[in-house]
Input
Amino acid sequence: MKTIATITGALALLFPSLAGAAPQARRRDRRPRRAAEGKPIIVTGRSTPGEKVMVNLAGRSATGQADRDGRFRVALPALAAGGPYQMLVDAPSGQTFVNDLLIGDVFLCSGQSNMELSAEQSQNSFQIGGAANPQMRLMTVGKQLAETPKDRFDVPPAWAAATPGTIARFSAVCFYAGQDLRRTIKAPIGLIHSSWGGSRISAWMAPEGLRAGGLDLEAKALALHARDAAAAEAMVARQWETWWRDQSGLSGAEQPWRAEHPDWSPVPMISFFGRWGAPEMAKYLGMVWFEKTVDLTPAQAAQGAVLSLGLIDDADRTWVNGKAVGGSSIGAPRRYRLAPGTLVAGRNRITVNDDNVYADGGLAGPAELMRLQLDDGTSIPLERRLALRPGGPPEDQRPPRAVGRH
Output
């Protein structure tokens, strides 16, 4: 097993108090500040359980021992901000060598779409060509959903020096803030960008934080999802359906997912509904119901399937034959697994509630992604002869959302 290591403490990955750093930046205090020094440097990593691990950083060495799970933690004396330094992590199972290592302040940049906006999309993009700085390092954390905290990345992100190429794809807000801080912090600066456009704060909170914030049902759904995703989706769907009945006053077959609606209007095309050319939908914010029927033979209906709906903006809740099969507001094409027994011989009804809260909304497709893929490989397109009906409870009554989605 090759030994791997990460510097997680002290100056190499130091998270300064943002409560103290931000006000200085806002006041435009141009007095040079030193990086927070004097803290030990902590190197953590994984190795073979029980073996000794030696770390040498800039000529200073320390040793530690991996625990029974293979985790080790080695503390080294503080180093002055600067570099580049070299680090060697050595153990009987292997070595890791790190070159061009800087010691300085690291800032975490997180948020929604405003933080996601890249430098090449910003108004100041013309400055990128002259913004290279070897004393700034950039890292972007990839998007990934998880029900419980993870102690390692499936695909570890990597640091990169600030060059025109790396700056262009990096968060504009994060980079320009770091560039401004470089004028007052006379030390290398590392910027970590970890954001997700449109995400709710609850999606970033630990279960204990959700409960403390009065989101007990969301915490329960999150814990259940880690054990049984289908059961969690069913629980959230029941909560959504209860909300709909309470807000709309409708029940029984009046609930849109409970019966077929031949009187609904046809969908003119698969695209954002604001682009259909229909005046009433041009700037529509609210809910739109979509419906599609599919006829299946007994042999087809006996199978499981995957329902693919393409991209939906913003949030959806989807049913097949009145049974909730999924819902999300994640910015990716929807794919919902249908267990055997969900489909029936003859006519099957697919109902989608789309909740548009900002700008464009609807079933954006593309049309070729919208299909019912049976387990035997049969693929049934869904893009034609859809029906729709705008409308929902009052817009000041927002529906419940699944925790971990946004």
